[in-house]
Amino acid sequence: MQLLDGKLLSAQIKLEIAAQVAQIRETGGKIPHLVAILVGTKGASETYVASKMKSCEEVGMASTLIRFEPDVSEDELLAKVREVNNNPDMDGLIVQLPLPDHINPDRIMETIDPAKGVDGFHPINIGRMAKGLPAYVSATPQGVLEMIKRYDIKTAGKHCVVVGRSQIVGLPMSILMQRNTYPGNCTVTLTHSRTQHLADICRSADILIAALGRPEFITADMVKDGAVVIDVGLERVPDASKKSGFALKGDVKFDEVAPKASFITPVPGGVGLMTICSLMQNTLKAARGEVY
User: Fold this and answer.
1) Do domains 28-119 and 139-272 have the same CATH topology?
2) Residue 24, Cβ density class (10 Å: 0-12 exposed, 13-18 middle, ≥19 buried)
3) Which of 67, 160, 233, 266 has the fewest beta carbons closer than 10 A?
4) Does the pTM of the predicted model rise above 0.70?
C-alpha cells in the first residue's frame, strides 16, 4: 500500500506556483488576486477560507476576504458578486458554501463571471469541461486528477467507480475519468444513494472514488485487493478524546481499507489540500487569461 500524500504534493505544487508568481512580479506583470466571500461564521467554512487565504500568501498571490453576517440579503450578496466581476484587479472569485437557507446558491454561482469562477462551479465552466473545452475544472476533481498524474497511476481501461453524484465532485469526477486523455479513459460507474447492490459495484472498481459525505461508509468488504482508493470525504465527527471535541473523518474506513489498497488517500492530508492547490492554479490561469 502506498499513501497518496496530499501534504507532500501540495507543498511541491505551491513551490511551483510561487516560482511562477515570482517571475510575474520580476517582469512587472499583474499579481494574481483571489477573492473569497464568506457568509456567517460556521467553523468549517472559517477553516476552509482561512486555508485558502493562507495559501495565497504562501505562493505570493494577493487575496481579499469579504465577510457578511448570516442575515445578509440575497440581493446584497449578488451586488457584491457583480462588483467583484467588474473589478479588473480581481482575477478569481469563490463564494464559500454552504450558504444560509434564505439564499439560493445556484443564483449566486450563476452570477459569478465564468472567467473568474476559479472553483469551477459555474454552469458554463461545467459545460465546457464536459465538452473537453478550456475551462476551470471543479477544484476537487482537478486535485484528484493531479494526484493521480503525479503518482503515475494507470487509468486507461480501468473500471472507475465514483460514489456520490454531487455537481461539485461526483458528477464532474465521472466525466473527467472517462475522457480520452490522461488521467482518463476509464469505464466509469457513477453511483449514489439509490444505487442497488452498491457494495458489489464498489468491489468491481480498480479505482474507487468516495465522495458521498458519510463518515467511514466505505468498508473493507466493499473494496477489492489492489484497488486505488481516493477519499474525498471530510466530515467532523464528535470525539471526546480530542481537544477540539471532534475528529476529521473521510468516507473510507481507512484502517480497514488501507491493507487492501494499492494506493489510498489519508484524511486529513489527502484530497482537501489538493483542492486548495487547484484554486491557486486556476487563479494563476485567470490572471494570465489562459482559459477565457
Assistant:
1) yes
2) middle
3) 67
4) yes
CATH for the 28-119 domain, from 3.40.50.720, 2.60.40.420, 3.40.50.10860, 3.40.630.30 = 3.40.50.10860
Active-site option among 91, 119, 231, 251: 119
Active site residue 20: no
Q: Which residue from 182, 110, 115 is spatially nearest to 152, judged by alpha carbons?
A: 182
| DSSP code string of 141-180 | HHHHHHHHHHTT---TT-EEEEE---TTTHHHHHHHHHSS
Q: Which fold has domain 139-272?
A: Rossmann fold (3.40.50)
Residues 91-114 have pLDDT tens digits of 999 999 999 999 999 999 999 999
Of 14, 52, 80, 253, the catalytic one is: 52
* Candidates 5, 80, 96, 113; catalytic one: 96
119: annotated active-site residue: yes
Show me where the domains of the chain are located: 28-119, 139-272
For residue range 152-165, list pLDDT tens digits in order. 999 999 999 999 99
Q: Check pLDDT > 80 for residue 260.
A: yes
